[in-house]
Q: What sequence folds into this?
């Protein structure tokens, strides 16, 4: 019998994206075997989505949410995209805003979202076999089911899977959120199960109440059990290590395919990547106002500009980098200190270095194809998506060996001439610079080996297909437990 799975996320492509979460929630359901599992996805109807899709969304239900502080109605709307049904919670008070996160009333917005999903199940008479939540925004759903609705048999039998995409964002709020907004009893706070110091913490509650916890790479699953990476939740994660596992992300290999990517000036594959990438490089240089030179070593960064991503290592070495015979392309937004440094870099090095402050999907594709090496020396990285995309486009990633970067990049071995990227271990700009120099020399001095590494990268399966099988096994396992 086909099992019903409800994905819960605050963002997903093709509708809205602030980070890799949106890529995964979009790509994974398509890779799951729909003869065994029928996946639906529930999302808040954020302004950007509503404005664009309002005429295509079909009414599916209507709900009321009542707690001490929340008295709101919502519509349930449905939309099917690429064979997957998306359910949207429409409530303009909480969701009709320009941004996605970062509002003063986020605690209320996320609480409302979790409560609305429970009401939605009743309203649609849809009780999935498994609820699969992604990141802290839906962190209290399992606890609501198990503590507040456990007397409803259809809810009580639901299994809960929770995927950590980034442990650094937890949703920590005042403890009264639990009572006033979510309607939990004080007893469940007092006995510790909902408590985090003297606060509420959505991520912690999810880790406590979900039946299975997954995260997006094996290495990260190990790292978060240590104090260094555990963000204050390592002891809880160690306690749950029997229920915790890592499943590496893939990418949507249909949207990311140099062979038919319409954003590129020319398409290429394993047979003609040398000429293809050169043309793409020229086109990128032209687009961004860089000096035209198809042979120069072009480095790129496509990233949120935050300290997670190791931007400070790059900035420490920027002077050195800009003395080399290279060009540098940066795309992304983030902390203003990083944005300003890259603006200054562009100003002082016109034609050689460029910074695009913003996000632009079409340009991102051009960059993945047109550069030679992607810089991603993250301090920590649950999985990382850019390194996978760049490999698919024949661009070698330079990464730090952490989390998913460690699991997806086979570092260049100069003796065996193997690998599909470059990496270093200890988080220091010195180590970063050392491996950058190795790559630089290889690019200019041993074209044959460089091309061999490109082939290795392009041949690699970076799709979701094998990880989707892992998720299916987890679903079966939790259902039979
Ligand atoms: C978060 C993580 C990133 C991961 C993505 C999708 O954005 O920072 O490493 O790839 O989620 O799981």
A:
């Amino acid at each position: 019998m086909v099992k019903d799975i409800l994905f819960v996320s605050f963002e997903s492509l093709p509708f809205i994206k602030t980070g890799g979460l949106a890529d995964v929630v979009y790509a994974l359901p398509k890779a799951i075997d729909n003869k065994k599992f029928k996946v639906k996805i529930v999302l808040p109807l954020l302004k950007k989505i509503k404005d664009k899709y309002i005429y295509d969304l079909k009414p599916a239900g209507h709900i009321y949410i009542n707690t001490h502080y929340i008295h709101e109605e919502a519509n349930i709307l449905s939309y099917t995209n690429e064979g997957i049904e998306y359910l949207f919670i429409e409530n303009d008070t909480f969701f009709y805003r320009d941004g996605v996160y970062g509002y003063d009333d986020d605690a209320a917005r996320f609480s409302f979202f979790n409560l609305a999903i429970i009401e939605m199940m009743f309203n649609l008479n849809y009780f999935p076999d498994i609820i699969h939540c992604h990141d802290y925004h839906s962190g209290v759903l399992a606890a609501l089911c198990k503590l507040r609705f456990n007397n409803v048999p259809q809810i009580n039998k639901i299994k809960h899977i929770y995927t950590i995409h980034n442990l650094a964002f937890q949703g920590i709020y005042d403890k009264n959120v639990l009572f006033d907004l979510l309607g939990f009893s004080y007893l469940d706070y007092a006995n510790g199960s909902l408590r985090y110091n003297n606060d509420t913490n959505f991520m912690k509650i999810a880790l406590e109440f979900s039946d299975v916890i997954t995260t997006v790479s094996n290495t990260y699953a190990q790292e978060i059990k240590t104090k260094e990476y555990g963000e204050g939740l390592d002891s809880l994660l160690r306690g749950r290590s029997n229920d915790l596992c890592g499943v590496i992300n893939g990418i949507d290999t249909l949207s990311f395919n140099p062979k038919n990517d319409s954003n590129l000036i020319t398409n290429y594959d394993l047979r003609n990547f040398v000429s293809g990438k050169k043309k793409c490089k020229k086109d990128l240089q032209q687009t961004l106002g860089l000096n035209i030179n198809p042979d120069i070593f072009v480095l790129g960064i496509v990233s949120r500009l935050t300290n997670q991503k190791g931007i400070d290592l790059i900035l420490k070495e920027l002077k050195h980098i800009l003395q080399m015979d290279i060009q540098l392309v940066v795309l992304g937004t983030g902390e203003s200190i990083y944005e300003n440094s890259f603006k200054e870099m562009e100003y002082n090095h016109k034609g050689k270095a460029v910074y695009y402050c913003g996000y632009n999907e079409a340009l991102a594709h051009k960059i993945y194809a047109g550069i030679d090496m992607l810089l991603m020396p993250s301090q920590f990285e649950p999985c990382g998506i850019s390194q996978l995309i760049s490999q698919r486009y024949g661009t070698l990633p330079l990464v730090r060996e952490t989390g998913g970067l460690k699991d997806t990049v086979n570092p260049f071995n100069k003796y065996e001439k193997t690998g599909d990227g470059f990496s270093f271990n200890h988080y220091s700009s010195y180590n970063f610079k050392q491996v950058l120099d190795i790559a630089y020399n290889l690019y200019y001095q041993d074209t044959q080996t460089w091309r061999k590494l490109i082939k290795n990268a392009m041949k690699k399966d970076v799709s979701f297909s094998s990880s989707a099988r892992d998720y299916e096994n987890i679903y079966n396992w939790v259902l039979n437990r």
Notes: Residues 106-124 form the longest helix (19 residues). The radius of gyration is 23 Å. DSSP finds 21 helices and 17 strands in the chain.
